[in-house]
Amino acid sequence: MSPTQVSPGTHIPVLVIGGGQAGLSVSHHLGAAGVDHLVVEKQTAVHAWADTRWDSFTLVTPNWHCRLPGYHYEGPDPDGFMTRDQVVEWLHGWLETFDPPLVEHTAATRLRRTGTGFEVTLAGPVGERTVTADEVVVATGGYPIPVIPPYASFLDPAVVQLHSEQYRNPDQLAEGAVLVVGSGQSGAQIAEDLHLAGRRVHLAVGNAPRVARFYRGRDCMTWLADMGLYDTPAQQYPGGKAAQEKTNHYVTGRDGGRDVDLRRFAAEGMRLYGTLTSGRDSELRFAPTLTDALDSADRVYNSICADIDRHIDAHGIDAPPPSRYSPVWAPETDPTSLDLAAEGITTIIWAIGYRPDYRWIEASSFDGAGHPMQTRGATEVPGLSFVGLPWMHTWGSGRFLGIDRDAKYLADGIIARHHASREERAS
């Protein structure tokens, strides 16, 4: 289907909503099978990588993890970590290998089930139009809405507040100290970026675990891939649902890759706190959780190293000797308050994640928290599926390493149903 033919009332056999790498991977497989479909994207195909990552951003997974349909990383540094701009260039290279039926700057604002399929309202430069579809694949990302706590509006208006997706570099911020809230991958790396630039940084530490960048001669994520962790179905994953709901481990690919050690940052002058619980004007309150958070992160770090040790021993692999992380700093007490004005803090960066927003979908396919109820992307609503979600099938889901597998699984089901329907109509 030509995107220029999408007028009000158009019927689309398969509509893919979201033109990021997940939605376009489904399109790649559908196109190869000759299935008529359309992809709509509310911005541009690679905008999330180009527009919502900071300047010094790098992948935290090795380049060899970068695999999309018919297109794998083939550069000179498979064990390195692409920068933001390199990822954008790599994705553009992938898009040049096929011709997806993509309409950009067009958002799906309403999706409802009909007796024979779906009715979808699209809004774009040419105005609003309603189309119909037999099947819909939602590839809008797992968590599109940045989380900002409700008490943020009660803080001193002189302090500038940004979400992590708005942060670009230290020079963007006003002079003065910076409070980063959240120690997941984004928060920890942004705090490091500011720290390396010589800014005075305060960091509210959450419950994110950490992992060694390199261990016993290889990248830890390469070891974990060899151990099958990225291929283990969610139902069989050690730790079950609790493990899947944890924040991703913090580490960095910057400067060739290294650990992110919050204790070392603290020894160098960064101020650490526990979970931020409330605030008003210039006064912030924290739970006394810092010591436990740092200890827990280190336990996970050492536990992963121990798992790798067992893998090495079980397979008789020749590798450098094992080691364990020993703390280089510990808090004397857990701080429970902070005065923004007294500390000269002029900027707060919220790095506490995102939340789902599927209010535009009128279908009974969500749980009480607003997450899709799906099995490998398929829902109980006939013809409605999702792709690109974390833990959709494995730990690799939502990452470059697992996108092609997830997309192909969904596409294969759609292709089979499409051919069966065509044969039924022909008989």
From TrEMBL:
One of its GO terms (molecular function) is flavin adenine dinucleotide binding. SUPFAM superfamilies: FAD/NAD(P)-binding domain. Keywords: Oxidoreductase. The keyword Oxidoreductase applies. Signal peptide: none annotated. This is FAD-dependent oxidoreductase. It comes from Dietzia natronolimnaea.
